[in-house]
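Chain A, query sequence.
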Amino acid sequence: MPKFPNSIRSAANPLKPSPEPGWRPNASSAFLTKIAKVAVPAIIFGLGWFTFQSHYDVWGGCKYLCLLAALAIYCAVILRGRLRDISVLAASLLLGLAAAEAYAVLTLARPLEVQAQGYSVSRPILGWGPQHPGVFHNIKFAAMTRRVIFDAHYTIDANLNRKVVSAPSGPAVAFFGDSLTFGTGLDDRETLPQIFSDLHDRKIGVFNFGFPGYGPQQFLRALETNMFDPLLRGRVRLFVFEATSYLAVRASCKAGWMLRAPRYEMVDGRAVYRGACYQQWTILNQLFANTSLYHEFVEPTFGGPTRSDIDLFIGILVQATKLAREKYGAPTLIVYSRNSNEYLRHSGLTEEGVIQRMRQAGLDVIDTTLDPKDFPGMVLKIPGDGHPTGVTNAARARLIDADIQRRHLLDLH
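Chain A, predicted structure.
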């Protein structure tokens, strides 16, 4: 065993050398240490903010877990005693969860979507959307085989909405909704709003305000803030909102990607704006709601809307349709597509029950659920994805148009 002079043996540990009396770290070393203590957590929080602002993807949960593990490791380095032990334990747990999440992403075969830069970024009011006009090329792959699920180009117009070729002036119809309305996986010509415009020979104006991940709250918040007023004022004759029961968990901010979305609560029977969704989330919600582990093992058992989620979903739509009538004198048609009744098991309702509750609340609802038997040899959903194909959108556009004409909902004067 090497021997050290008594003057440099540590009193706490005789095997550990200690500095000579009077030894001090040099100024540059002390300065770098202070910088590191500030810079490391700043970098970690900066990367966390960047991840928060970025578009949702399947690796989001793994990224957050790794960043939290890095923060715990940093704490283990600078702290001492029991706090250091806790930090080491937390770092070990977080790294284990990150590894399990990475394994889940790679082996549970969730599709991977490659999105063009600027296609979806953080935006005020609605939470997210396109950063700039242009044509965005998006591709979705099967995780294990790399088979192309869809390969589509999305044209975003000067107003940062999905492009619809329609009349530039005169009466117009405004479509709101999520990826179904936007047309995820489809080129511009196959979206529901574009097909509806084509049915009218492009002689009326048609707007596509849908975007992937949106819920009913984006519809209501857009009307409350007048953000589309320059486009709608004096033109809009009808609002169309494309709905389905899975929007209820978005309305209540339970879906993992809804962090930046507007949040509403029912107060005295009315939907009231309460800020952003993340303001009601706990740390555990924010950490685990976007993970593959949650989506594959927790959500199938405990997920799905509750009765209160359905009530909020309907309440937001009631408030939006009322506001549409007050501000623009235009009615709203709710275009509804059914899911399986199993999805609604925690609400105590069926899909038919949800439709009836919507109508009882005063909403004008048309059921556009398609029966595959009526479309032999045709593909109604994008294989491996689930979004509607152009065939489905064409069929729904005809149903919507027939209902509008039968009940004279669209005043073209």
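The longest helix spans residues 27-53. The chain has two domains: 28-107, 161-407.
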